[in-house]
Amino acid sequence: TRPGITMNDCPESAQVHRADFADIREAKIVKGRSINLALSHRGRQALKQVGMEDTIVSKGIPMHSRMIHSLNGTQSPIPYGKKGQVTLLMQRLDTPHSAETYSTTKLNFAHKLLNWSTETGAMTFLRADGAKEEIQADLIVGCDGAFSAIRKQFLRQSRFNFSQTYIPHGYLELTMPPINGEFAMKPNYLHIWPRNTFMMIALPNLDKTFTCTLFMPFDEFENVTTGDQVIEFFQKYFPDTIPLIGADALKRDYFRLPAQAMVSVKCSPYHLSDKCVLMGDAAHAVVPFYGQGMNAGFEDCLVFNEIMDQLNEDFSAVLPEYTRVRVPDDHAIADLAMYNYVEMRSHVNSKWFLFRKYVDNTLHMIMPRTVIPLYTMVTFTRIRYHEAVKRWHWQDKVRHYIVHSSLYKGL
Ligand SMILES: Cc1cc2nc3c(=O)[nH]c(=O)nc-3n(C[C@H](O)[C@H](O)[C@H](O)COP(=O)(O)OP(=O)(O)OC[C@H]3O[C@@H](n4cnc5c(N)ncnc54)[C@H](O)[C@@H]3O)c2cc1C
After folding, report:
1. What are the FAD-binding domain coordinates in residue numbering (predicted)?
2. pLDDT in tens, 341-371
3. For a tag on the chain, would you pick the N or C end, based on fewer CB atoms within 10 A?
4. CATH code (residue 40)
5. Residue of 24, 26, 37 to test ligand 1 pocket, by largest number of atoms within 8 Å of CB
6. Ligand 1 atom nearest residue 280's Cα
């Protein structure tokens, strides 16, 4: 649900306001905050399992390729994978709650978790009317995001590993309006303006706008303090976007919100006895450069469900097994997202990168089972993330060998 709505992720405050932890479908959208998410194979498989794939996918915009915008305004597409391999762009707010259709499910919004007991499993919530409510649960599934209140109790346990890393970049979002009721740029692409140490991307929305996200070191954001400096900066690095966003809107919207921080969180184990388990960003917040955060969270549910089936829903066996299986994969996607943070803003500019992509795709065509490009493994398959990384390193060696021996023979 984050971070497009007015919800308070900070459990410290002793108050819960009406908008805090509210029903996402009724929450107010904050202009300049992200509302779209790329949904790919892993997320779709989880949705399929709960009978929601078609409903959700029908509301998505398919994206086939990256579109690289160079400084001189030329645009060159880099397809993601084979024909038919698409990522779907979803609106965060447009998703119905299928859980609501089950008579055994009760959704409580505007309940802020204050604390819970690792001994009894009792949870204390603060309601919007100021009253506290205690709830006892057989199993607590902590899906309360990167700054998880549930995870706080894990930090007090011996042998719980935890790390969090803020990257030096922040992000800021701008809106590119439609032109004559149509998208201002080609809609079925992830548009990228890679500029080495920073970049901008643009993703289409159902209302024919694009959300443009500028990722840049905080220091650089601090150097741009006036409307004229914004225009000067865009003139230098993203000149083609000025007429599309509009100079006045750019000057205004750039300062609407401060740049937002991005954090990567790793921890282990994901469970605490047979009482509590972490999923989604609470277990593994990743930087957004692989478009996998939500997908990995959805896959957590799928893996958990598979293990529940295998182990006859015995929580004392399921929870440790879920940790064993899932931790290496989530840690791998956290690392890959960090890797893509450099690839997207810098490598896509290089001829060597494009050549490597070409060799990978050619090898994949010749040996589709043996060589699979990393992006394809991550985005369009359910190959475990950590296995995808292993295969990638192995494939890298094979490619290296082929390229170098061809060059040698050519000489
Ligand atoms: C700029 C950006 C772009 C992204 N793009 C993509 C993308 O394209 N594709 C993709 O797969 N992922 C993307 N992500 C990642 C994705 O947004 C997250 O991985 C996903 O939202 C995590 O879902 P979650 O349910 O685990 O946590 P959250 O979405 O953070 O939800 C946590 C929920 O817990 C509630 N909560 C928190 N504390 C408490 C408390 N004390 N009591 C009660 N409730 C509480 C919050 O209100 C919230 O509703 C992006 C992230 C960012 C920042």
Report:
1. 43-302
2. 888 777 766 777 778 788 888 888 888 888 8
3. C
4. 3.50.50.60
5. 37
6. 26
